[in-house]
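Consider one such protein record:
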Amino acid sequence: MQTRLLQQMNQPVSAIGLGCMGMSEFYGDSDDSQSLALLDKALELGINFFDSADTYGFGHNETLLGQFLANHKAQREQIVMATKFGIVRAKGQYERRLDNSPDYIKQACHDSLQRLGTEYIDLYYCHRRDHKTPVEDMMQTLSALVKQGDIRGIGLSEVSSATLRQAHAIHPITAVQSEYSLWSRQPEEDLLQTCRELGVSFVAYSPLGRAFLTGKLETENLAADDFRHAVPRLQGEALIDNQQIVQQFSQLAGKWQYSNAQLCLAWMLNKHPHVIPIAGTRHEKYLMENAKAADIVLKSQQIDELDKLFSPNKIAGARYPKAGWGGIEK
């Protein structure tokens, strides 16, 4: 697996990371033994960048990754573990509140360390900004955690360029994580450029459009508790319009002899040297397929063709339901 550099930490990571959320929640039932086997396979393939959050499965995801780390103690220094704080939910509910207060951050970090069973968190993100807490207070708390050795790098998720600049001036930001894919291209407006200017890595979550861009998602067969039932762009007329674009995309991918998923990942890897997609999956077949995308070289004409096909004004529907927009900066 090719690598990219988290510049602020001087830490090489696999060009494609593994998003682990679906191993605990939001995408139907999962199996821990299957997930652990998949994590082992990812490491075997050279994937060393794993993404979690305390809210995924109400701590279950971190506990699962703690088991994985315990099974690979000799490789701990090569594994880059990212997790997040800031979203507080009640079990059985998607609705949430946000908390970036110093006391909460310190307790959340302690709890994440316990669940992960590790002495340090490589990359610790503010999952969503709580604007009741000044950026200065949040960053000073996180900076203290770096000095204590509890965390190695600080990340922000779904923030604006202005917030990134403000935070980075207080303590270097290692990475910004936001949704970015062929059909979610808001970061191209200015955030990607700001990250590049500041030497901040950009971690793209949902790079496969919550599996919709793979052309294999059958929305009518989703589990009853699957989060995607609530995503506006996967409903009604928006779904029909978006399916037409994906059908054209599938034809292009077939013509160029790639899978849809590989083309999604290769598109952003070829466009941006500082972008690291974290593709989530629970299946070894797709993990191996995705990993091969790191070796794909696209021509500029191919990238332009994909840009035009997925022009933002063609995409129907919002990327989140109302409850999901809390803390997302524009």
Notes: The radius of gyration is 19 Å. Residues 3-325 form a domain with the TIM Barrel fold (CATH 3.20.20.100). The chain is about 35% helix and 15% strand.
